[in-house]
């Protein structure tokens, strides 16, 4: 394969710092030996910092979907009732995971591009009895929507004594998410998004109070059994063979986050997202989500019907070496998605907008050439 430098502006996987890549080039070690224990300890400490939690955290060898199966499988039993707001492709998948578990979904349908609200959750919990859990996607990667009501939702679920499961796969490490303060019982995220690591592991935080529910569940999954993970964790180990190179990478990635500091990191993501939105707006392209719920980590934009999304992505990739994401599900031909994650800075934002402007011009789309870059620049210099 020809090695080629490309800018990966997907909503995950994303660009990985060289330092993190280099960390993977270490020899394999015994995953039940002292070197792994030291690695495990270091990961746990920094992971708690990222989740802003005092509770237990875990790293599982899996893609993001496995962590959803883990969260649902440990908390929910067949026949249980689970509230799931559905407002995009990934929340639909979350709903399907709950259904596969044999549970009943109380769906809160929300128009794509909008966010579920605390009031909607409150109303459903007031109406329905014996709800086993509320499961929600915090950052809907398909629509670029962040649930800004999540802290209020956490208060409501706590008051109602209903566990809260949060899929934060595409946001943890890129925007505010203090899991203890927001009363989140299980929070999951992927390595390949805002943590700026390669794909291959997921991170999970588990609140103290949900252990009672998990321990009582006698149909927990085998591979993703959190009780077993906790037992191994006491020995600074994982129940099954960990993806060692990705653990090395995660350790380095978390150290980088700690060196930068969470607040600085969130501010950097927010500034870059603002620059993206204003850059695209200056090119007359609107954001798909409504303004007050648009994400700082995934930028989804509407594409005019005369522009072919596949062609845009192909030209950006082949001529300008910038890879952006397509729309998902019903938005496939109507939107484009750009990851604003991990190492994101003015350099990647302006390179992406520059490639985008050039591509539109190459396609003879009447574009106010240079307007996008200028608008983005202004954000960085304001
Ligand atoms: C919000 C959300 N949930 C779940 C997933 C699925 O993760 P994976 O493809 O790593 O299994 C993704 C992936 O993009 C996501 O963004």
Give a description of the structure:
The protein is an alpha/beta fold and 382 residues long. Helices cover 42% and strands 16% of the residues. The protein has helices at 18-23, 34-51, 64-75, 89-100, 118-127, 150-159, 211-216, 226-234, 244-260, 262-282, 309-320, 346-362, 371-381; strands spanning 7-9, 56-61, 81-86, 104-109, 131-137, 139-140, 145-146, 164-167, 186-190, 201-206, 298-302, 322-326, 335-339. The strands form three sheets. A seven-stranded mixed sheet has the order 2-10-9-8-5-3-4, sandwiched between helices. A four-stranded mixed sheet has the order 1-12-13-11. Helix 2 packs across helix 9 (244-260) and helix 12 (346-362) packs antiparallel against helix 13. The termini are far apart. The model has no long low-confidence stretch (mean pLDDT 97). Bound molecules: pyridoxal-5'-phosphate (PLP). The site of pyridoxal-5'-phosphate has 11 residues, from helix 3. Pyridoxal-5'-phosphate (PLP) binds next to helix 3.
Short synopsis of the structure:
The protein has 382 residues and is an alpha/beta fold.
